From TrEMBL, chain A:
This is T-complex protein 1 subunit epsilon. It catalyses: ATP + H2O = ADP + phosphate + H(+). Component of the chaperonin-containing T-complex (TRiC), a molecular chaperone complex that assists the folding of actin, tubulin and other proteins upon ATP hydrolysis. The TRiC complex mediates the folding of WRAP53/TCAB1, thereby regulating telomere maintenance. As part of the TRiC complex may play a role in the assembly of BBSome, a complex involved in ciliogenesis regulating transports vesicles to the cilia. The lineage of its organism: Eukaryota, Viridiplantae, Streptophyta, Embryophyta, Tracheophyta. Pfam families: Cpn60_TCP1.
Automatic annotation (TrEMBL), chain B:
Belongs to the TCP-1 chaperonin family. It is found in: Cytoplasm. GO terms for cellular component: chaperonin-containing T-complex. InterPro entries: Chap_CCT_beta, Chaperone_TCP-1, Chaperonin_TCP-1_CS, Cpn60/GroEL/TCP-1, GroEL-like_apical_dom_sf, GROEL-like_equatorial_sf, TCP-1-like_intermed_sf, TCP-1_chaperonin. NCBIfam families: chap_CCT_beta, thermosome_beta. This is CCT-beta.
Length: 535, 527
């Protein structure tokens, strides 16, 4: 414990209630942290690659999630250890930034930590290891830049994009219909992409799921899907060339926000008030009708009378539409969200070629399709699947695929996957290490070895002999001086990743290496852990 | 110093073999639970709820049983989930899907213990499932063109579905009812138009299908009990005190006379409203909300039948069947669509009076009145009938049918076996296992009927060796027989859904190599 002595030799206490705290210092602290980080990485290691296994997670409320997406697993794991939480953060930031490779980054960090432990045992100072890692990661990133290739595609020929998305999806449970899902993802991204600026706003792609049907029934809707139905059961179920009024005011009598009372003390007042009320409803509906709306979408509820009036005037309406959906509808149809009936004008109406209600299955589930919108920038991916878990997992997989497609549009440099990039980096780093005098050399070599652990895990998960396969591929790369050889996970019969069409985005890979190095550096720099001891 | 604890206190983590074991065992336990309800001679389960009153349900519907279970095992939850989806999507085969998934996992367990990697098993299962589906597709019968034959197909499917339920005694009667009801729907799968009314008393045989619409409500006092050529206004409007809806309005008066005046005005307003309603030229008025005595009296005076407090569903259905629109304002009577029906009368079922609308404009809707000895019987009868209706309505859309009685399983098993022989590599073990799992279904059906399953299945297998054989297990006579002759048919859509979702669920569970259970959320101590 931290004890200090004043000039008279009396001990005094630095930490408050220090007898209730546990403290780890120096090498012990580093070892403990490394062990925790490794433990997290070990959990994810078996999920890496196309033949990776899933994890079943039971949440605090008993709900079950089955996933092999690194970020999801870690998020739901509810870890308690500080360092483990850092690893969770690591995977999450990869998810936010790139959207794919969340498992790989954690496995990489775990391997770096493992190597660091070995160097610590040799007596190398943690800061020197950290510096060595830093240098090595720079070498690796530069090397990746050098070997990266341009990836050619355009809007009409999006086949290469589909291939990439298929690589991403092949490690997920949905790989049964990866082809169709990849196509859906690519089409969705291309639909919302701004190819001039090379930017994709993924917010415009809404991913909806509904339990039931087959995975094959998953579809891409060029428009919006709203989980609502018409407010009156007898309104038309299909509207062509809809002019949509998007309202955020209820079809109800006005409710002034200031406190007030309307006193009724005579029969006349009673009568006038009644008249006014009726008129009010009439006016509301009339206004919508006047501007030429053929469909009303409202964020709030309808009064019974108003509802009937709408029905009566042949003005179909949808009520209780959520704020987010409302915004999406507004974007897609090119309409404006109108907060007051008085402000309705024909220009503010949204336009859609087709609005229809569709029912599913035997239970009364209905969804509203808004298609052929004026501004077709918003699309919806509608996922069907056997059960809720399947749909959730499909959603996550589609998200990954979307991110990959987006990254390629942003920056079309690619490196080859299947561990090929890691192996070539490992070789480059190893070679670079010899040039550095001093202790860092060891750390750089350790980094190279850590890079090998990704292809090693891939081989292991695919049921191959890890060491044998890795050394074979490595020697092949050196011999032919081609950085495209990787682990043949799917047992296709060739190591050439170009032939197998397995590649990843350059930024994704670089990000993985940089993020993993950063976190490991952070962990290595901790030399004192003070925590509240339990009980 | 190793840190082995990265999770919270109560969390647990199971890895590798142990995790797989835990999920296999959980899934198999659930499958075994519902196994004994499979087939025409399946047994029922009693479910007692933990809620107030400890209400009891007697059922052999797989989805209902599983829905009521409180399960902790995550893998078991997956199975419960697929059965629920099966129920939502096709309505029947909820037990079969769980039993098949359970059998697939049981076979997978054996393979895993003999050191075959789960991924290899999954690959094999996938190939097998695809091949099995192909096999079924090759043998489907489609009688869409021939209306008469199609109807008889539907009858047979309905009887096959019902024969495993409580209604099996009167399956012909109920099958007829179900087929009639579904035919009225004319291809829509919207089962809302078929109303099921349960009235205790009488026997199941007294249940009947009514072509009209039955509303479980009473006619107001002093109003006609029978109307011919009724013009109906279906409404959703306040007929108690029509409040002023403007927010914050209130009555404040300073003398008794004024109160009386306002009361008078209110009455006048109501009178106006009634007058307007009557202005539509109707002789029947159905409202979703309450009708107070005063307006009721006014209606009675005008000789109009007024029905109050018909619930949302009743109103919607009534609107649907009579072709009237649900009105809330009454200012322009000329444009409101009124509902029509030939006859409204009060009828007695058992001891209850119901209102019967017959000769309605839209022929889609109909009501089925179920009679039975007790609530439990009626509930179960409703579930069974619902299953049959679901299957039939799906079959109307997808008219492909198959033979039943274990015939499809044997056909699939045969094809899958062939595939196993042709496939090289470890996958063939998994494919073989798939075929064994398929055969487990007829085995279970025979077992549940107390027959010698080993003998029967062996016979069946031999029969199926011949091309184009129609043999299946006839549980009633306890022998292998020609399913076409016995008229045992099943819907292709149901079988396909069973096959695909069971495979999917098994695959999902197989892929898991680690189970992490989070610490349960702490409840606020209310004890």
């Amino acid at each position: 414990m931290a004890l200090a002595f004043d000039e008279f030799g009396r001990p005094f206490i630095i930490l408050r209630e220090q007898d209730q705290k546990t403290r780890l210092r120096g090498i012990d602290a580093q070892k403990a942290n490394i062990a925790a980080g490794k433990a997290v990485a070990r959990i994810l290691r078996s999920s890496l690659g196309p033949k990776g296994m899933d994890k079943m997670l039971q949440g605090p409320d008993g709900d079950v999630t089955i996933s092999n997406d690194g970020a999801t697993i870690l998020e739901q794991m509810d870890v308690d250890n500080q360092i483990a939480k850092l690893m969770v953060e690591l995977s999450r930031s990869q998810d936010y930034e790139i959207g794919d490779g969340t498992t790989g980054v954690v496995v990489m960090a775990g391997a770096l930590l493992e190597q660091a432990e070995r160097q610590l045992d040799r007596g190398i100072h943690p800061i020197r290891i950290a510096e060595g890692y830093e240098t090595a990661s720079r070498v690796a990133v530069e090397h990746l830049e050098r070997i990266a290739q341009k990836f050619e595609f355009d809007v009409n020929n999006y086949e290469p994009l589909v291939q990439t998305c298929m690589t991403t999806l092949s490690s997920k449970i949905v790989n049964r219909c990866k082809r169709s899902l990849a196509e859906i993802a690519v089409k969705a991204v291309l639909a919302v992409a701004d190819l001039e600026r090379r930017d994709v706003n993924l917010d415009l792609i809404k991913v909806e799921g509904k339990v039931g049907g087959k995975l094959e029934d998953t579809e891409l809707i060029y428009g919006i899907l709203v989980d609502k139905d018409m407010s009156h059961p007898q309104m038309p179920k299909q509207i062509e060339d809809a002019h949509i009024a998007i309202l955020t005011c209820p079809f109800e009598p006005p409710k002034p926000k200031t406190k007030h009372k309307v006193d009724i003390d005579t029969v006349e007042k009673f009568e006038t008030l009644r008249k006014q009320e009726q008129q009010y409803f009439d006016e509301m509906v009339q206004k919508c009708k006047d501007v030429g709306a053929t469909l009303v979408i409202c964020q709030w509820g309808f009064d019974d009378e108003a509802n009937h009036l709408l029905m009566h005037r042949n003005l179909p309406a949808v009520r209780w539409v959520g704020g987010v959906e409302l915004e999406l509808i507004a974007i897609a149809t090119g309409g404006r969200i109108v907060p007051r009936f008085q402000e309705l004008t024909p220009e503010k109406l949204g336009k859609a070629g087709m609005v229809r209600e569709k029912s599913f299955g035997t239970t009364k589930e209905r969804m509203l399709y808004i298609e052929h919108c004026a501004n077709s920038k918003a699309v919806t991916i509608f996922i069907r699947g056997g059960n809720k878990m399947m749909i959730e997992e499909t959603k996550r997989s589609i998200h990954d695929a979307l991110c990959v497609a987006r990254n390629l549009i942003r920056n079309n440099s690619i490196v080859y996957g299947g561990g090929a990039a890691e192996i070539t980096c490992s070789l480059a780093v190893d070679a670079a290490g010899d040039k550095y005098p001093g202790v860092e050399q060891y750390a750089i070599r350790a980094f190279a070895e850590a890079l090998d652990s990704v292809p090693m895990a891939l081989a292991e998960n695919s049921g191959l002999q890890p060491i044998e396969t890795l050394s074979a591929v490595k020697s092949q790369q050196i011999k032919e001086n081609i950085p495209f050889y990787g682990i043949d996970c799917n047992d296709v019969g060739t190591n050439d990743m170009r032939e197998q069409n397995v590649f990843e985005t350059l930024i994704g890979k670089q990000q993985q290496i940089l993020l993993a190095t950063q976190v490991v550096k952070m962990i290595l720099k901790i030399d004192d852990v003070i925590s509240n001891s339990e009980y | 110093m190793p840190i082995d604890k990265i999770f919270k206190d109560d969390a647990s983590e199971e890895k590798g073999e142990r995790a797989r074991m835990a999920s296999f065992i959980g899934a198999m336990a659930v499958a075994d639970l519902v196994k004994s309800t499979l087939g025409p001679k399946g047994m029922d389960k009693i479910l007692q709820s933990t809620g107030r009153g400890h209400s009891v349900t007697v059922t052999n519907d797989g989805a209902t049983i599983l829905k009521s279970l409180h399960i902790d095992n995550p893998a078991a939850k997956v199975l419960v989930d697929i059965s629920k989806v099966q129920d939502d999507e096709v309505g029947d085969g909820t037990t079969s899907v769980v039993v098949l998934a359970g059998e697939l996992l049981r076979e997978a367990e054996k393979l895993v213990t003999s050191k075959i990697h789960p991924m290899t098993i999954i690959a094999g299962y996938r190939m097998a499932a695809e091949c099995a589906r192909e096999a079924l597709l090759k043998r489907v019968i489609d009688n869409k063109e021939n209306a008469e034959k199609f109807r008889s197909d539907l009858m047979k499917i309905a009887m096959t579905t019902l024969c495993s339920k409580i209604l099996s005694q009167d399956k012909e009667h109920f099958a007829e009812m179900a087929v009639d009801a579904v035919f009225r729907l004319k291809g829509s799968t919207n089962l809302e138009a078929i109303q099921i009314i349960k009235k205790p008393g009488g026997s199941l045989r007294d249940s009947f299908l009514d072509e009209g619409f039955i509303l479980d409500k009473k006619i107001g006092i002093g109003q006609p009990k029978r109307i011919e050529n009724a013009k109906i206004l279906v409404a959703n409007t306040a007929m108690d005190t029509d409040k002023v809806k403007i927010y914050g309005a209130r009555v404040r008066v300073d003398s008794m006379t004024k109160v009386a005046e306002i009361e008078g005005a209110e009455k006048e307003k109501m009178k106006d409203k009634v007058k307007k309603i009557l202005g539509h030229g109707i002789n029947c008025f159905v409202n979703r909300q309450l009708i107070y005595n005063f307006p009721e009296e006014l209606f009675a005076d005008a000789g109009v039948l007024a029905i109050e407090h018909a619930d949302f569903e009743g109103i919607e259905r009534l609107g649907l069947v009579t072709g009237g629109e649900i009105a809330s304002t009454f200012d322009n009577p000329e444009s409101v669509k009124l509902g029509h029906c030939k006859l409204i009368e009060e009828i007695m079922i058992g001891e209850d009076k119901l209102i019967h609308f017959s000769g309605v404009a839209m022929g889609q809707a109909c009501s089925i009145v179920l009679r039975g000895a007790s609530h439990h019987v009626l509930d179960e009868a409703e579930r069974s009938l619902h299953d049959a209706l679901c299957v039939l309505s799906q079959t109307v859309n997808d008219s492909r049918v198959l033979l039943g009685g274990g015939w499809p399983e044997m056909v699939m098993a045969k094809e899958v076996d062939e595939l196993a022989r042709k496939t090289a590599g470890k996958k063939s073990h998994a494919i073989e296992a798939f075929s064994r799992a398929l055969v487990a279904i007829p085995t279970t059906i025979a077992d549940n009927a107390g027959l010698d399953s080993a003998e029967l299945v062996a016979q069946l297998r031999a029969e199926h060796h011949n091309e184009g054989c129609n043999a299946g297990i006839d549980v009633i006579s306890g022998a292998v027989g020609d399913m076409e002759e016995r008229g045992i048919y099943e819907a292709f859509k149901v079988k396909q859904a069973v096959l695909l979702s069971a495979t999917e669920a098994a695959e999902m569970i197989l892929r898991v190599d680690e189970i992490i259970t989070c610490a349960p959320r702490r409840r606020e101590d209310r004890m």
